[in-house]
Amino acid sequence: MPSPIQIGKHILPNNAFLAPLSGITDKSFRTIAARFGAGMVVSEMIASAALTNGHKDMARRLGRPEKLPHIVQLAGCEPHWLAEGARIAEDAGADIIDINMGCPSKRVTNGYAGSALMRVPDKAVEIIEAVVGATRQPVTLKMRLGWNDDNLNAPQLAKAAESCGVQMVTVHGRTRQQFYKGQARWAPIRDVVDAVSVPVVVNGDIIDLNAARKALAESGAQAVMIGRGAQGRPWLVGQIGDALAGRTPQPAPAGQDRLDLILEHYAMMIDEYGEHLGVRCARKHLGWYLDALIEEGAQIDTALRKQLLTAASSADIPALLTQIFEQIEVKAA
């Protein structure tokens, strides 16, 4: 049973965390995951320079979820902009600042941000020092095993980060060159655990409780971070956290409770993004909710699914979802 993790003054309620996912872990999703018992939730990645220059979408990503410490993840390639971003995030209510050195996206790495910083560790350390020096709040770091298999420098960077004042390190068990292909490797993360005294979190391909336990055993990490496994199942992170803590996990919502949750999530997204953008941003979540139902054995009418995922108005969604759930109940009977 993993020990509780403390970051600054914050003692986290369990050791299963929701990963930061651009375009996914917005305020709405984080609020729901927190409500279902996630031990920690992290904002979408925020580009520091754009935030400092008043970019509206970056400012939206600062939205604080219900419960839990408010953790804001910043990305960038210049110490000055990350320091400014940390100050803005703190002023907006961030309790913890997380630095992104793990994103593999070409759009990010071409600017020498994200996981590209693992290729220039001296620059990475400058950024960490700048962020730690700019905020009174605790700072954490998320990265990968390295840029490629010839440069697995996560242990060295983690040790340097700890010496700068970083209080927790998360490692995705792939290199940047792997992107999200192949299988995450959890065992090499043990070298990071051995290199530092701060808590280490294992990330990558943790889609259920069995994977979480295996990842912890292989890596020696103190906590797990769940990303894509929570899509369409925002309750999963809390379930895994409860099980790791020796508690009986709460069951996934079913029937009317599941329908009510999806409708609430949808309404929250419309409120967060506005009608025009919200309808489009919510479609992927609706699709993932339906996928989760299908994985549980539900049969969903293809035409109804298409109607739901192409609806142009939020006003059409409640009736379509209700019809889908009524069909599921009839077939189950």
TrEMBL record:
Enzyme Commission identifier(s): 1.3.1.-
PANTHER family, A to Z: TRNA-DIHYDROURIDINE(47) SYNTHASE [NAD(P)(+)]-LIKE
Protein's name in the database: tRNA-dihydrouridine synthase
Top-level taxon of origin: Bacteria
Protein family according to the UniProt entry: Belongs to the dus family.
Enzyme superclass (EC): oxidoreductase
Record organism: Maritalea mediterranea
CDD domains per UniProt: DUS_like_FMN (cd02801)
Positions of the DUS-like FMN-binding domain: 18-298
Keywords linked to the UniProt accession: Flavoprotein, FMN, NADP, Oxidoreductase, RNA-binding, tRNA processing, tRNA-binding
Alphabetical list of Pfam families matching this protein: Dus
SUPFAM superfamilies according to UniProt: FMN-linked oxidoreductases
Catalytic reaction annotation: a 5,6-dihydrouridine in tRNA + NADP(+) = a uridine in tRNA + NADPH + H(+); a 5,6-dihydrouridine in tRNA + NAD(+) = a uridine in tRNA + NADH + H(+)
Functional description taken from the UniProt entry: Catalyzes the synthesis of 5,6-dihydrouridine (D), a modified base found in the D-loop of most tRNAs, via the reduction of the C5-C6 double bond in target uridines.
Cofactor (UniProt): FMN
Single Gene Ontology MF annotation: oxidoreductase activity
